[in-house]
Design brief:
This protein is an alpha/beta fold. The chain has helices at residues 15-20, 37-45, 65-72, 109-114, 116-122, 134-140, 155-160, 212-221, 255-267, 293-307; strands at 5-9, 30-34, 51-58, 62-63, 78-86, 90-93, 104-107, 127-130, 150-153, 165-169, 178-185, 197-204, 227-234, 242-249, 272-278. The protein has 10 helices and 15 strands.
Length: 310
């Protein structure tokens, strides 16, 4: 069997590549760095890559909107697994540049937001130059026509590039910051349920009216399904039209989760199932007795007995 091919948000040395390297076999696999999330997912949709690793959520900044939007539209994809990467940042520049020389800094938007307190304290007047990734911003400093003086990136990037000098270490505002990444492939057989699983769906709001969101949430609550994340995103069709990206505890094969998914589809037929996969933290989902698989099976048997006149 030939090694897998994985796409990821590049270039090499990004936090996303660090997440990908947690996947068994990824070290030996072909790894394709991409300039943005859409490019990585397009390689999967076209069959040029078996799966793509992309960021979806940060413990400080919340959801990564580029990923939330990209997996909510286009040809359907499935989340296969998730990974967590602790996030630390350094400020780098070309040799000879001092902190006092820095007037313009490039990095990814999430990294910039996570270093604002340090920047306000040490470089309050610096200008921000958006970068497609932290690694891309750092590598851009090596170009002859670099139009900024420094970059915020991962320590690994600085260590692997002899042309960069670290001006400051641990500049993040939150030392416990973590980013969650997802490995996304084409639709296929779901990973086996483990008891510590997560299910992700995208639910368009079918109608903008009082109680519309409550109707969606009730499908989970009434079946004892806990939600670990819910975020709203505009569909882009017109002002005020939104979809909800939701992570629920449990697997589609769990009776309570499967029943909730069926109910969501009745309410919003455009609901998109994005996968059921093992939780990276391996936290076992607690299930109330009345929402267990056995309870659902017993209730169904009771109804069938009624219909059969028993």
């Amino acid at each position: 069997m030939s090694p897998a091919t994985y796409a990821f948000l590049g270039p090499e040395g990004t936090f996303t590549e660090a997440a990908l390297l947690q996947v068994p076999g990824a070290v030996e696999a072909t790894r394709i760095p991409c300039t943005n999330v859409n490019a990585a997912l397009d390689l999967v949709r076209s069959g040029q890559a078996d799966a793509a690793m992309v960021p979806i959520e940060n413990s400080v900044e919340g959801g990564v909107t580029a990923t939330l939007d990209a997996i909510a539209t286009g040809a359907e994809l499935r989340i296969i697994r998730e990974a967590l990467v602790p996030i630390t940042f350094v400020l780098v520049a070309r040799p000879g540049v001092e902190v006092s020389d820095v007037k313009r800094i490039s990095t990814h938007g999430h990294a910039w937001a996570q270093c604002r307190r340090w920047l306000d304290a040490h470089l309050p007047d610096v200008d921000y130059v958006p970068g497609s990734s932290t690694a891309a911003a750092a590598m851009g400093l090596l170009a002859a026509d670099a139009h900024y003086d420094a970059a915020i990136c991962a320590p690994l990037v600085a260590a692997e590039q002899p042309g960069l000098t670290v001006l400051a270490e641990n500049i993040g505002d939150n030392f416990d910051a973590v980013t969650r990444f997802i490995l996304v492939g084409r639709p296929g057989v779901l990973p086996e349920r483990t008891g510590a699983d997560k299910t992700t769906v995208v639910v368009p709001l079918p109608q903008d009216r009082p109680g519309a969101l409550m109707d969606i949430l009730d499908q989970f609550a009434s079946r004892g399904v806990n939600l670990s994340r819910i975020e709203s995103r505009p569909t882009g069709q017109y002002l005020g039209h939104y979809f909800f990206s939701i992570d629920a505890d449990g697997h589609a094969a769990d009776a309570r989760v499967g029943d909730a998914l069926a109910a969501l589809h009745r309410i919003s037929p455009a609901t998109r199932f994005l996968g059921s996969y093992p939780r990276v933290d391996k936290d076992i989902t607690e299930v109330a007795p009345h929402t267990s698989d056995a309870a659902f099976a017993s209730a169904q048997a009771w109804v069938e007995a009624i219909l059969q006149g028993e």
